[in-house]
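User: My collaborator sent over this chain with a note saying "see what the structure looks like." That's all I know about it. Can you take a look?
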Amino acid sequence: MSNGSLYTNIQHNIATVEFYHPSSNAMPSELLLRLAKTFDELSKNNEVYVIIFKSEKDTTFCAGASFDELKAISNLNEGKKFFSGFANVINAMRNCSKLIIGRVQGKAVGGGVGLAATCDYCFATEKASIKLSEFTIGIGPFVIAPVVERKIGVAALSELTLDATHWKTAYWAQQKGLFARVFETIKEMDIEVDDLALKLSRYNPEALTEMKKVLWSNSKNWELLLKERAEISGKLVLSEFTKNALEKFKK
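Assistant: Without extra context I'll predict from the sequence alone. Here is the result:
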């Protein structure tokens, strides 16, 4: 379980992708690699019309990148490779020919916010607060910034990034456009997630694919952009500031 788990289930033209990691559903590099591969495979699967993306358990949706791996980075190549993990998943999700429904049952931090933002339509519960805390350890949300900005705009991205120690509520995220709908309970949310997925699975799959292209038409340069952003983060994580911050966080 050190690398987490990832399961895909396909029924009635609906694929459900579910991930889990014992550290608050954090994302180690191996899990990110498998996730990107999964979206690439589903994109080519003619039996799949729509995807539901979720994490296990009923608490945290995703705590972001693996903290243990972050601390172990010792050079620029390792840093760039580490931060390219989320870049690869974001690119796989946006390039996926299937529409992706996000199901966010709890808090999302850092890269977890990026995953939610990359979904084409995202449901959440009241407990799905969000935070971009990267500044507190001397780096920034550079890789996920383009996809978060695409969903909530520059002003909200700025507010979320600069106020790095405070959580924003699920209703704040809904008002800004990250979440389409927010529910009191997971049960209520799951009913609506399944209902929308079923409706989409009955539509013309070619129309769904063409709409996906339209939704992401402004992201054609992201393959290069996100790699450049990964290199920025990979450089910053080697700074004395970040090393000291990580050591304090560990203690």
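A starting point for your reply to your collaborator: The radius of gyration is 17 Å.
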